[in-house]
Write a structure and sequence with these properties.
Length: about 400
């Protein structure tokens, strides 16, 4: 029997559901894995080598990793605590991201606090945003531990407020898996209000930095609403005539609405749009059909990491919506770890995100990232962006 993850484990497990439903299309996706050549990303490193794109490079051996463990960081979500669940191969911890033509220093918590002192950083998104946020807390834990000022009215573990008193630095995570307003109308089925920003928008005046990300939840069963009217849907029966039946549409509109809303409220901080985290690392079957991510090393430079059509389309939409919004003059940076992460099929929990006898629909998690793990590089990139 498949347990109802959500009710048994609380909202934390909604993450799993997210991935689970997203994967309902995986059986279809696998044959379409394609090899996609990325344009160079719009964000160029300001230093030290001109025109170095920190998002294009390779993973290089790094014996000094990892920077923390399950013993030294108390903020690791159980389902990503691969060391605790006994993952035996630890090679996946021994790599660092090396951009072509320059270096990306490993995360330096002292430098980070210097940059963010007296400021507020927010993560808005789904469980991958939370994965990123927990990596940041772990990397900072060498230097300081935060006070939890989370709102008890918002107990979801995707809604947190963490305050670093010595540096007057605050981190928010805000659970908004579709970025726009949504309602769950049945188990795993949602109404999306594609022209209405999520409930994070009223909080943004207090943020200096806002990291927006989304993708995975658009593969769920969803109805699309605009101006309060049903206009389309994906993986649902529709009783209207419409051509809006692709999650490419809902995904694009969610980014468009969110970025326009930020512009509309005159957001003065820096907006960081974080691109797709790979959804296609399952091999040998779908997420619920025994698929797994069994690789034990990154793809080498002479190998091409496969990318699904869905990932490529979501990626392109994010870049396009980013470019459109950036043209309006907001302070925006595209944080583009997609290629780096495509090369890390070895960095997921797989079956080390729970005990072996725990039944889960996505028994092998090839969506989230182990902590510590390759997702720590997202914070190397983040510090580089904020410091530059
Ligand atoms: C950390 O992981 C090790 C196994 O690698 C385990 O023995 C230990 O109990 C874990 N500690 C915590 C606090 O999770
Ligand atoms: C915060 O601002 C105060 C003055 O406004 C300054 O004295 C202090 O050094 C700043 N703290 C950090 C960590 O930047
Ligand atoms: C903390 O930072 C806020 C701005 O985020 C500032 O208004 C406040 O004065 C700072 N507090 C101290 C004690 O520096
Ligand atoms: C489909 O049409 C029926 C009858 O008009 C209506 O009750 C129902 O709410 C509609 N479904 C959706 C998703 O709008
Ligand atoms: C749907 O049809 C309308 C009108 O024909 C067209 O303008 C629009 O681009 C179409 N949308 C999609 C997503 O194909
Ligand atoms: C690809 O690169 C790896 C690591 O550098 C090397 O071991 C392997 O032999 C190379 N394979 C080919 C086909 O060149």
């Amino acid at each position: 029997m498949v347990l109802c993850v959500k009710h048994l484990f609380g909202p934390a497990a909604a993450i799993f559901l997210s991935a689970i439903i997203l994967l309902s299309c995986f059986t279809n996706l696998i044959p379409y894995l394609s090899y996609y050549t990325f344009p160079s990303s719009p964000y160029m490193s300001p230093e030290p080598v001109p025109k170095c794109d920190i998002f294009r490079g390779e993973w290089m051996p790094d014996p000094s990793s990892p920077p923390y463990t399950n013993e030294t960081c108390a903020h690791i979500q159980n389902h990503q605590n691969c060391l605790m669940y006994g993952r035996p191969d630890l090679e996946f911890l021994k790599w660092r991201w090396k951009p072509d033509g320059c270096d990306l220093p490993r995360f330096d918590p002292h430098k980070f606090f210097q940059v963010v002192g007296n400021k507020t950083l927010a993560f808005v998104g789904d469980s991958l945003a939370r994965n990123h946020y927990q990596s940041l807390l772990c990397l900072l834990s060498k230097v300081a531990l935060p006070k939890d000022l989370s709102d008890p009215e918002r107990p979801h573990d995707g809604n947190k407020i963490m305050f670093y008193e010595a540096y007057n630095f605050t981190i928010y995570t805000m659970w908004s898996p579709f970025l726009v307003r949504f309602e769950e109308i049945a188990d795993g089925m949602f109404n999306l209000y594609l022209d209405e920003p999520g409930d994070w928008l009223p909080s943004v005046p207090r943020f200096d930095y806002l990291i927006l990300s989304a993708a995975n939840w658009f593969t769920r069963q969803t109805y699309f609403y605009e101006r309060g009217q049903l206009v389309g849907g994906r993986y649902v029966a529709l009783n209207i005539t419409t051509n809006l039946t692709s999650n490419r549409y809902s995904h694009r509109m969610a980014f468009r609405t969110s970025l326009r809303a930020l512009n509309g409220v005159g957001f003065r901080g820096k907006v960081i749009v974080r691109t797709v985290s790979p959804m296609s690392h399952f091999e040998g079957g779908a997420y619920d059909k025994g698929g797994d991510c069994p690789r034990k090393r990154p793809y080498w430079a002479n190998e091409t990491a496969p990318m699904s059509e869905l990932e490529r389309d979501f990626y392109n939409e994010q870049v396009e919506e980013f470019n459109e919004a950036a043209a309006r003059g907001m302070d925006m940076v595209l944080m583009d770890p997609t290629i780096a992460m495509l090369k890390r099929p070895d960095g997921h929990p797989s079956r080390y995100g729970h005990w072996p006898d725990q039944k889960r629909t996505m028994y092998n998690d090839c969506i989230h990232w182990c902590l510590p793990g390759p997702i720590d590089a997202w914070n190397d990139m983040l510090l580089h962006i904020l410091a530059g």
